[in-house]
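Duplicate of #3305? Posting structure anyway:
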């Protein structure tokens, strides 16, 4: 995949600057991730000499498309984010990507902030600024995507499922092997534009285990939205 094609297919995620063990790093903000990561290159350059790498973990780390993400271990460090000190946060050290395009993106943004950091940071911000923290904190207030993401997190904490997504198609849809595709769907038709998170059901019914509904932050207008599904198998679905 060349960079022009990839830029058309891959959207930009919210980013923010954080300090990991005192070193500045640009990070994606991913509420769909339970863990925080930095690349092996960043670790070798900044963290290797000042942290102790722990390798006593054996869980499988998977990306949004269901594929495994290799890592070499983790470190426990203090993270400074949006004026808050988050002590002893676990950070996984993921191996550098193989393909040149992803490697270039990771060189520019080598970090990823998951919920083990985001949830604590949000809690501390709420203690300092109350429920209006997203307007009071400059990093959030001046970044539309980041502001909407934090608002969606707030709604998710206080709301249950608001409805279900149905596919906008009268004919079967083929999902090629080892791929992620974007589909058009319909959801609850509320009287205004609203944001939501599309998540998989706990049961997949008759669908194969290689089918995955990717957690997707969406804006719903007139009940219409787009969402992502993945086929991590070797055969088309």
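Output from current build:
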């Amino acid at each position: 995949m060349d960079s022009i094609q990839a830029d058309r297919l891959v959207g930009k995620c919210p980013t923010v600057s954080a300090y990991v063990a005192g070193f500045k790093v640009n990070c994606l903000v991913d509420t769909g991730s339970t863990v925080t990561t930095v690349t092996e290159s960043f670790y070798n350059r900044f963290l290797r000499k000042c942290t102790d790498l722990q390798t006593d973990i054996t869980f499988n780390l998977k990306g949004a498309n269901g594929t495994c993400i290799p890592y070499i271990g983790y470190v426990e460090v203090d993270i400074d984010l949006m004026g808050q000190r988050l002590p002893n946060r676990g950070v996984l050290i993921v191996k550098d990507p193989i393909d040149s395009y992803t490697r270039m993106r990771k060189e520019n943004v080598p970090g990823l902030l998951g919920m083990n950091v985001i949830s604590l940071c949000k809690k501390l911000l709420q203690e300092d600024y109350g429920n209006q923290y997203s307007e009071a904190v400059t990093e959030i207030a001046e970044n539309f995507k980041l502001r909407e993401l934090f608002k969606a997190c707030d709604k998710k904490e206080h709301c249950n499922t608001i409805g279900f997504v149905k596919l906008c198609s009268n004919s079967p849809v083929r999902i090629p092997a080892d791929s992620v595709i974007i589909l058009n769907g319909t959801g609850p038709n509320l009287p205004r534009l609203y944001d939501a998170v599309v998540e998989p059901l706990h049961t997949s019914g008759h669908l194969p285990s290689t089918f995955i509904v990717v957690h997707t932050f969406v804006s719903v207008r007139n009940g219409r939205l787009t969402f992502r599904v993945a086929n991590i198998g070797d055969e088309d679905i």
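Confirmed duplicate; merging threads. The mean pLDDT is 83. DSSP finds seven helices and twelve strands in the chain.
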